[in-house]
Amino acid sequence: MKWQYFLYAVVIAGTGITVSHAQETSTVSLALVPIQTAFVKGDLDKFRAMNWIKDGSQSGIGDSALNAKFGKDTIVSFEGSGMFKDSDYSGQMLVIKDGVGYIKMNYGQFRKYYDNKGGYFPSFTSASLSNSQSLRLITLGKELSMDIGKFSVEIGKGTPEDSSLSLGYQRDTKDGSKDRLTWGYVKDTAFGSTTLNERLLAPTFADEETNTDTITLKGKTKAAGFTLKGEQKVVLYSGNIMSQAQMESNSATAADNQIVRATTIPNTKEMMTTLAAERWSLNDKTFFAIGYRFAHLHNDTYWTHRELSYLTGADLNTKNYDVWAKTNQDSNIVTAQLLSNLTDKLAFISRFKAEVRSTTSQSDVDTSATSAISLATASNVANVSSTAESFSLRYAGLPKASLYADLDLKQERYARTLFTPAAVGSHAGTMETLNHTPEGLGTIGTRFSPMKSVNVTTEYKHSVKNDKLEAFQNTIQNDAYMNIFRTDNDQVMSRVSWKPVRWLENSFKVQQVSTVYHVQALSRDMSKTPGSERDFVYDVALLPTDKWMFNLSYSLKLLKVEGRGEQSTFIPPASTSNVYSYMLTTSYMATEKLSLFNSLEFSRAKNRTNDSNSINLTPNADTVNGVGAVAMLWGNNDAWWDIDTGAKWEPKKNLTIEPHYAYYTYEAYPGIEAGNYSAHVVWLDVNVKW
């Protein structure tokens, strides 16, 4: 997108022109980044994905700004930045004329990077037949990055914070490639039996190009003591999304070396009307608000599924589908809120929400593997009704303490009728289901300050969610589903802060979360899986002198899942997920014109199973660092450092020079992940004001 260079040139030139006609109260700042260089050793793609920085050298414009006043009633402000190689741009402009209105414009774009590798399984020793890559780690032959952009313009009466009438337009865009969480199968026939030689390791990706256009008309007025608000919004969404997964193997079997490619072309139109009224009464001690929203959505989607040979590129004609789908959805939502200060010490808050939503969809599926079209139609009708209530009390009448209590309730009823024709596959027939999902959350807490230097906050939460599915008619064969999924959760949190002297302040927080998952599948007994989470956080701030400042933070997170499943012949092993991190920041003001700053952050994650009945990797067990049949790692097991140091120097008035140096390192844990890197990044910020 080369036109951004021209845009920034025009903005900078325009800044210089307009300031010459502005009053003396105008201010302009221009921040340049003449150089930023990243020297990376190791895995470049992982470095880009984790730090959103491209390796090599680049330059750009930092946080620049213009604030000017023209005449007595016109204010113009502008902020902008841009790093050209990273395609990271932003610009905001606001013009306000007293008694008339305003115009506001906003533009932003940034590039997000993704890792192009799949999973890592060191026990695979063979090479892929199709591309000679080692099957233990497959890498895509393309860089994954996504440009995400936004442009908006709004005009209105009054000011942006208090406008009586406004019209706005916004476009959101995505263009690029990203990784996907679902990996493809990799098969090494030299590894054990057929039940062990397949692993989900192959990376998958999606090429996306989407646009979302939103037009919004908002208005506000007052009548009979009420503030009335209205909004009309139209959203148009279109795109082209191609996702691809590949299966790789060391065998010549076509099914073990194939590309699975799906293309989705959606087009969505949504219209929403929102009306609201609010009012303060009883000497501004009671606030009441009510709102209503109606939304209509229509979606047309064309979807294709193809399976191609990775060895020859030929169409395998095994599970090819073309689908044309249409969906219509209407929803009606009513909300209400009441806030009442019953006394000077006691406040009561209540909220209510009710929603009725109906959805109808139809899919025409071409099941022919040839050029001839053979259509089969599937349909789905769903109706949802839900209500939610919330009640809160706040009491501040106790000496040195305050109390609060919250109760949140929600009830949802989901009725669905699904028809699938026999031509689509083995899951053919009609299913009518009714889903009840009541849930509740209760909270009580206190804030206590026994002395001026000590503050204590303690809180307890209990929540229950019970998802129950009932099938009234089910002719779909081999359709297994959960008919009960219940979650019980208890949380206890306590935080103590202590400031014994002016130059020392510290706090300690501990939180315990216990969760039990109850699952019942069709024709199975109920299973129970408990899990727990413990968090510890300590923060300390030191200001020994007016020139020195230190901040230190330490956090420890301990997660555990018991892995019990009474209804299953395979019982997953218990697993732990522990993460601890340190963060230290310092600053030193050497002189009035020179200050130094540093930051250091270290984090270590270690997730593993600790059950002797864990999945056995024999006969080619991975024994790196003791990882094998007894303990199997999964999840993140890594360590990383971020170190940043720099200075801020003001050699003369309105000129600031800031050199920076940063060091980043990532160490993947052997046996579960590959891809280490270390990087040195240097850059320079130069800020000029006039």
List the helices and strands and how they pair.
Layout: H1 3-21, E1 27-42, H2 44-51, E2 56-70, E3 74-83, E4 88-97, E5 101-114, E6 117-120, E7 137-139, E8 144-156, E9 165-179, E10 184-187, E11 198-202, E12 205-223, E13 226-249, E14 258-281, E15 286-309, E16 321-341, E17 346-366, E18 375-398, E19 401-420, E20 429-436, E21 439-451, E22 454-474, E23 482-501, E24 504-521, E25 527-542, E26 548-561, E27 575-589, E28 594-609, E29 633-652, E30 655-668, E31 677-689
Q: Can you describe what's shown?
A:
With 690 residues, the chain is mainly β. The protein has a 29-stranded mixed β-sheet that branches. Strand 12 and strand 13 form a beta hairpin. It is globular. The two termini are 31 Å apart. The N terminus is likely disordered.
Number of strands: 31
Biggest sheet descriptor? 29 strands, mixed
Shape: globular
Number of helices: 2
The helix fraction, in percent, is under 10%
Given helix and strand content, the structural type is mainly beta
Alpha carbon gyration radius = 30 Å
Portion in beta strands: over 45%
Distance between the termini: 31 Å
Overall average residue pLDDT? 85
Task: Please name the defining characteristics of this protein.
mainly beta; single chain; globular; 31 strands; 29-stranded mixed beta sheet; 690 residues; two-stranded antiparallel ribbon; 2 helices
